[in-house]
Fold this sequence. Notes:
CATH superfamily of the largest domain: HUPs
Largest sheet: 6 strands, mixed
Distance between the termini: 47 Å
CATH class of the largest domain: Alpha Beta
Structural class: alpha/beta
CATH topology of the largest domain: Rossmann fold
Oligomer: single chain
Radius of gyration: 18 Å
Number of domains: 2
Shape: globular
Amino acid sequence: MTVEPAVAFWSGGKDSALALDRVRRDGRYAVAALITTINRDYGRVSMHGVREELVARQAAALRIPLHKMYVEAPGTNEGYIAALRASLNGFKQQGIGAVIFGDIFLEDLRVWRESLLAELGMTGVFPLWKEDTRALAREFVGRKFRALTCCINDAHLGEAEVGRALDAAFFGGLPADVDPCGENGEYHSFVHDGPIFHEPVRFHVGEKVYRPLDLKPQPGAAPGQQNGPTSIPLPPPPGATRTKGFWFVDLIAGEAR
């Protein structure tokens, strides 16, 4: 069997980890790099609010090079697409034509991704596509991944759920309107151990913070405050929703306390 080089989009969360696990077990693709979108102003993963240092530690534990795709804050769609094109073009020039995503059932997003990739002469790979998200949650637990929620949409979950371990109790206790994999933006996660890691990612849990949708970073904040939890960029609400804000937990590199 011919093994094709690929890059994988890596948010640091559960679906990225499951997709990478599937690809590695399948054996058709060799992942040459992970691509993570980082908000340049905050130094955090877009949408998730996780510090970029922790994503770098994930990549080191995976033994895969990390490509940080920086976007500005507040970002524009045009700016994101320009950064995306530049990143993917760089890998295309290296002879890499396959791009792996952890998407599950968002049709419009997949169509958009594939249209952009086609313009670049690249192909999308979707290892989890159209799978039952309840079964994927069971697979995640059964494969002995370890993760916790790092961002919660308050339209679906509350403060008590941010920072919780993604274990059988968590998945079993989710409300009926919450997709088990958070595919509708109900929550985001941070994976710190599992079968794809060579060693666990060491971190400790910091402050929980609530960010209303209309809250803006305060002008004139001291440089040291830019890495604090109050500067975590908000994910955009997915269309018309009951969302009033998001709960984040600040994860800090280093041994657990």
